[in-house]
Fold this protein.
Amino acid sequence: MEINFTGCLLKTSAYLMTTKQIKEDIIKAGEMAVKQLVKVAKEEIIKPDPEDELAADRLKNAAATKKLAIFDAFEILNRIEAERAMLEEEPEKEGKNKSFGFAERRSK
């Protein structure tokens, strides 16, 4: 079996491109999830029946659900921003490393 070094580089480059596309798809899915969480947070808490003994517990659970939806949405947005920043940095890093040899990169 013969290994073509140039072919390996092309496969690696194609893999990186696929990884970038997957990350972009994950970001889009995260944005859709945030939109759904916003919908949950905007929903009104249904007024319970005053005669219902479990009304206070239901209100407490509804408020906790909304709080969790809001915090999750912010957490997802922060992660999306971080991932986008990393995706934008990757081409710059690759360009910088190409001008140096192995020894030059490791000497720092």
Observations:
- The mean pLDDT is 79.
- The two ends are 38 Å apart (CA to CA).
